[in-house]
Amino acid sequence: MLRTRKRIGAALLAAGLVFSQLGATAYAVESPAGTGLCEHHTAHDAAVCGYVEAIPGRDCEHEHTPECYTDELICGMDEDAEQTATDSDAGHTHGQACYALDCSHERGEHTTDCGYIEAVPGTPCGYVCEVCAGEPDKDSGKEEPTISGNGLTAPEKTGTETGEPGDTGTITVTAFDGIPDAVKQQTVPAGTTLDGLTLPATLGASGYVVSDDTDPEPEAITITGVTWEPDSPWDDTAEQGGYLFTPVLPAGYTLADGVELPEIDVLIGGAVTLALQGGVLTVTFDRNGTGGTDEDNNEMKTAIETALSGDDKADVATIKLTGSAAEVTGYNWQYLIDLYNESSGWNSLTALDLSGMTNLTTVKNDTGMVKSQQTKLQTLTLPDSVTQIGDSAFNNCKNLKLTELPGGVTQIGDFAFRGCTGITLTELPDGVTQIGNSAFSSCTGITLTELPGGLEQIKPSAFRGCTGITLTELPGGLEQIEPSAFYGCMGITLTELPDGVTQIGGSAFAHCTGITLTELPGGVEQIGDFAFYGCTGLDKIIMEPTTAPTINDSTFENTSTGLTFYVPKGGTGYDSGGWENLNTVEYSPVTSISLPATLELRPNGSGTLTTTFIPSDATFKEVIWESSDTNIVAVDQDGNVTAVSNGTATITATSRQGRKTATCTVTVKDAPPVTIPVIGVTLNHSAYTLHTDKDPRSFQLIATVEPSNASNKAVSWQSSDTGIATVDASGNVTAVKEGTATITVATTDGSKTATCTVTVKTDSSGGGGNSGGGSSHYITTTPEPPKPNHPVLAVIELPVSVGNGTATGKPDDGRTAAAIAEAGKDAKAKTNGIAVQYDAKTSLTYDGFSIVIQRATLDRLIAAKVQYVILNTGVVDITFDLAALQEIQKQATGDITLTAVRETGLAGDALAAVGSRPAYRLTVNYTGADGKAATVQSFGAGRVTVGLAYKPAATEQTGGLYLVYSADGKGAEWLYQSSYDRNSGNVIGSVGHFSVYAVGHRPAPAFTDTVNHWAKADIDFVVSRGLLAGTDDATFTPDGTTTRGMFVVALGRLAGIDPAAYPSSRFNDVATTAYYAPYVEWAASKGIVSGTGDKTFSPDATITREQMAAIMQRYADKLGYTLPVAREAEIFADEGQITSGMKKAVQAIQQAGIMSGKGNNRFGPKDTATRAEAATVLRRFVEIVIDPAAGGWGQNDAGKWLYYENNKPMTGWKQIDGTWYYFDAAGLMQAGGWQEISGKWYYFYPDGAMAANTKIDGYEIDPDGARKE
What is the pLDDT of residue 1191? Predict the structure, then answer.
């Protein structure tokens, strides 16, 4: 209920009647005259009710003296503003009003001298007369008291008083009277009930009755019948907590715009709990409230003084805050930070720890009062939850040592770290959007190299005097650079400003001698006084704005004498306003640029883009180039474009002057296939004789399609009489019975044919018999070739668990011991030794691992002299040889941990080489004798094979895949002795230490004559590594011959020799200027090759296959590689043609898997080695060196695929990775057509996979692969 009354009367009545601080609350109902307690007692009796009327105080007569002010400037001007005035402080001289007050009278700490008398409310009235305390008067016309929603008794209503809503209309409240602090902030003990709170049912306010009056005059009013609602249900069982109450006004009241309801803050059990232990004062701070009333009346001060009872504050070294409060502000923060003032008396206090406040978001001193010399604070710990470091939070904390801010900080307020010369920040959190006035002023220890990209505002003097920052650019979203923002920051080296900048404040870059701006953005409208004062690095500035920005004579004062401003032709304002005193030259601006719309390149191809400028006489034609995808196309700053891999990317050119752009779409794709027709076909035999009862019973015809680079070399075979001789799809001819048959080969393209006449005989002589006359018997013993020497492999399952993408596990030592013992029982173990393989087993996916090898297990493996240990994980496979294990044992103490962590922070050359392909940081860790973590630095004489799982992209050449090593995540070293292993699906390489290893791709040229060649992957391998080169830009000539000079060059490059180390030549036919000369000299000096005469080498002579085998054996021997015996020895049909001195070499190279037969059980020792065969031999050698135990898929020297198992080629049916293949009696995989096997027809795709459950050439194929007839 509302009553109109005089303002002074309202103030007195509100003080006397409305608010109570007693446990029991009584409300006096005003008499009609407005002077008494109730209708029975119309006046207060001090002797009865204890009421004393409030006395208004007089104004304070104190006048501030210089002692009342601090040395903190609050006028926004800098200390030396008189020397370098800005736009806003030109001619400014600091007066007393420029400095912050620190005066007791200002805070309300008045003395009798100042004449101030405070208004003192009287003792609350607790009087209730006997009549009013009895039953309500039935005839009085008064209503029963009502109970509000929060359980409080509402005041009585008369319904007859003036101003009642029902009588006069809606009442608009324009303001509420203040609530006493004791009521506004209440602290009650746990267990307090709702009716035990002081919640006034009457509020004083100002307002008016809504009427036709267009300009009503507010009057003082009293609102009765007020109830209060808490922000959450009241819990009187709570031990601690806080509630915020707001009033519920009776019906008929509305609030004017901008008027807010008053609030009452109630805390249960107190907001702050503290305890002093061992020099640490622990503060539990759950609620900040309104931040305290003043520096002598706040929760922090009261609680700290209470906690220190009996203790000396001089003993406190650290204040540690904990609790759930979301902010510490106002006098709570001011009081806390002032404890670190040099004169606070807290003699030992140096640290502030806020890490326990996990909900804390904001700290700030918003009282407007700051003390200088907060020198005690040295150590500060902030929780990660902090988002705002507000105004003056750490102002003048000169000895504060701070190296980083919480990552979630978004705002840094005015004067937040002003004068904190001890902080050494190197970066600011990425999310910072605002940096306040003088936030880091005079912070000479910070060394920022960049500012957060989302920064929107840098206020005046934000980094003034920060001589350690070395910015090279500013965030792109900045529009204003405020006065003195970077004053004296001599370390910044800006070359340009953000395009959106419109204003540059006074002294913004004064004394920034390192900036070398060459242009100012086109939108700049105003540049303040002394903005670039003393910027001696400025030499030439291109002015983009067509209308001259407003400047002052001092804007560019004290810069270099030769500073020239290039102003746009036709621009306005550059002949006045201070510009007339500068050295200006007109230029012709760029209005637009263009590029060719499209460009098509081949992989590894290149081209140059030329920019067209409009107008053509534009003065400045510098262009900035950028590629949208450097994995597809790279571009340099001259517009030279280089194709990296197939795909499409956009090249953007941006003119530096004018920022005009143009784009070109670049497409990289393989050259379209060129169809080369077949012109003929020949056979290796025109006639051949077979026998039915002795060898040869069969032979192979080899068809040579001409030209060698014909697009379609497919052929078909036919026998004129299959009753005499048959021929299969590979040209293998088999005798059936005596007679003559003609074998015809026909090309699919052009139907070209060639024939061979086959005569089949049967020898009926019975083998000859004895000729009589005695006989001589010779017994010839042929040495048995060595057997494959693979060790016996013990495979042990290693269970792993997966968490956060990392697999962890530990091989069981007992199972390892049992596996070693079992493997040792194998007869081969006595000669070949044993090896151990741990297979990580889990159904979960992961991209890294941490595997612990117990010391006992490591010692056991070494004691067993295992040849190698494999850790097979599926993401990174690692193989340690015995020497590597011994080196780890020597360096490490205790258990070791093998880790592989995905490396995501590559940069520079490493990122360019790897792109998005896998990269892992590999380590062998252990705990040293000093208890600290340590890492095995190298494997000494040992080697470790690293295999990174990788599925090549469709556009990638498998021969161009490398293992790339990076020591620092930025540089890149391409390991030439690395390769993609088809069998394991890994990119493998042999290393001598761990670091970051990744998959890189360096493609070879897209040769037109290798697209369908059987050795394409091997050719890509050697060309990518620079071992061999194409015969021209587009061709490799794979079936061309290999020369002696060519081959030793490849071997020298593979060995990584320095050609400069071999400047002379011992052979007369090798000129020292020839490209192969140093490699010939190296090979001859090492005994790898010898001359063809005393002084001749014959570099252009071709080499045969047996010579190649002999050279490779000597190469391995001289460089210290041990060739493995990986395959069973083959006895070739042309064994007798191998030069006797080369037989051992041929056998060793064949059993190592470096060379093999050419088909039909032939080695072809005297055949000239082709360039394709040379490429294949070089790649196989590299892979054998990396992993001697490799098996699985392999090609013979005619390009036919075989699958090796147990050291020999598989024959018959074999399921590999879920796909069925068929290998003939010679171990050759069948591919590319129909084959009859055991009376059934099967179809094999070009890759050898058997077709099943499909339809081909009109035939239905069963699920088992057999054709339905």
Answer: 60
What are the tens digits of pLDDT across the range 367-424? 878 777 788 899 999 999 999 999 999 999 999 999 999 999 999 999 999 999 999 9
pLDDT, tens only, 227-259: 999 988 888 887 767 788 899 999 888 998 888
**Residue 428 contacts residue 449 (beta carbons within 8 Å):** no
Q: Are 1046 and 1185 contained in the same domain?
A: yes
| Shared-domain flag, residues 1172 and 1231 | no
Indicate whether 23 pLDDT > 60.
Answer: no
Instruction: Tell me, yes or no, whether 344 and 252 share the same domain.
Output: no
Q: Which residue has the tokens 């009342």?
A: 68
Q: Are 974 and 964 spatial neighbours (Cβ–Cβ below 8 Å)?
A: yes
The answer on 1195 and 1048 residing in a single domain is yes
Provide, for the chain, the percentages of residues in helix, strand and coil under a 3-state DSSP scheme, each rounded to the nearest 5.
15, 25, 60
By three-state DSSP, how is residue 956 classified?
Answer: coil
Is 1087 a member of any domain? Answer: yes
Report the candidate in 1174, 1037, 1044 with the shortest Cα–Cα distance to residue 1100: 1044
Structure tokens at 391: 């105004």
Paired with 474 in beta bridges are none
Q: Given strand 732-735, what is the order of strands in its sheet?
A: 698-700, 732-735, 725-727
DSSP state of 130: H
> Residues for the chain: how many in total?
1269
- For the chain, the C-alpha Rg in angstroms (whole number) is 47
Across 104-155, the runs of DSSP E, i.e. the strands, are none
Is position 566 within any domain? no
93 phi/psi in degrees, rounded to 5: -120, 125
- Tokens representing residue 1090 in the block: 């010898």
Q: Name every residue whose Cβ is closer than 8 Å to that of residue 445 and which is 6 or more positions away in sequence.
A: 421, 422, 423, 424, 468
Residues 1030 and 1105 in one domain: yes
Q: How far apart are CA 442 and CA 419, in angstroms?
A: 5
Listed residue (972, 962, 977, 960) closest to 996, CA to CA? 972
CA atoms within 13 A on the CB side of 3: 20
Contact 557, 530 (CB under 8 A): yes
- With helix as H, strand as E and coil as C, how does 975-1032 read? ECCEEEECCCCEEEEEECCCCEEEEEECCCCCCCCCCCCCCHHHHHHHHHCCCCCCCC
Residues 1091 and 1153 in one domain: yes
pLDDT band at 782 (very low <50, low <70, confident <90, very high): very low
Write the DSSP string, 467-531.
Answer: TT---S---TT--EE-TTTTTT-TT---S---TT--EE-TTTTTT-TT----EE-TT--EE-TTT
Number of C-alpha atoms within 13 angstroms, CB side, residue 183? 22
- Residue 917 and residue 957 in one domain: yes
924 vs 851, 864, 900, 942, CA distance in Å?
10, 21, 9, 14
Q: Count up the domains in the chain and report the number.
A: 8
Q: Which domain, by its residues, includes 608?
A: 592-668
CA-CA distance, 549 to 535, in Å (whole number)?
A: 19
User: Does residue 997 share a domain with residue 1084?
Assistant: no
Last residue of a domain, one of 266, 298, 330: 266
Number of Cβ within 10 Å of residue 1101's Cβ equals 14
Longest dimension (CA), the chain: 168
Task: Report how far Cα 1205 is from the mean position of its chain's Cα atoms.
Answer: 43
Tokens of residue 648, six digits: 């499409």
Angle (CA) 800 806 810, round 5°: 35
Asked if the model's pLDDT at residue 532 lies above 50, the reply is yes
Q: Are 979 and 1182 in contact (CB under 8 A)?
A: yes
- Least Cα distance to 282 among 382, 389, 365, 357 occurs for 357
3-state secondary structure string, 659-697?
CCEEEEEEEECCCCCCCCCCCEEEECCCEEEEECCCCCC
Peptide bond into 165 cis (omega under 30): no
- Is 88 in contact with 483 (CB distance < 8 Å)? yes
